[in-house]
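Prompt: For my understanding, could you write out one protein's sequence and backbone structure tokens?
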Amino acid sequence: MKNPDDLGAVKNIYQTYIRNIAAQLQAIDPAYRLISPTPDIINDDARLEEFIKENFAHNHHQQGSLRMAPLRNGGVVDRRGAVHGVRDLIVADDSIIPFTVDGNTSAPAFLIGLTIAEQLRKRKPVSRRRGWEDFEE
């Protein structure tokens, strides 16, 4: 982590959320133990920083990198997932989500893919060219 603010943010996650979640789980099940990092590491800033630097890796899913909006408003794809200015290129994944999903990203990806696939199946080509403008609703 090159930015010191990033290290501070990750430390805060461990010292606030992970510690509290572990305590709640232990209250439910006394046999529960936080294994890595251990509570003594979480409670020691220097040891926690060392743990994070040694173990923290990129583990999030990119979402929302292709804005769904009209081109004049900075959009990359239209409401059907068609990329502005590129014929026959349709995006049907989490990159068109306008916000970060708090949870598993599979469900919204499946929903977006299904919705766009259903839209495509309902359209009938009116010519040999198969751009969005060549489909009838």
Summary: The CA atoms of residues 58 and 107 lie 21 Å apart. The radius of gyration is 23 Å.
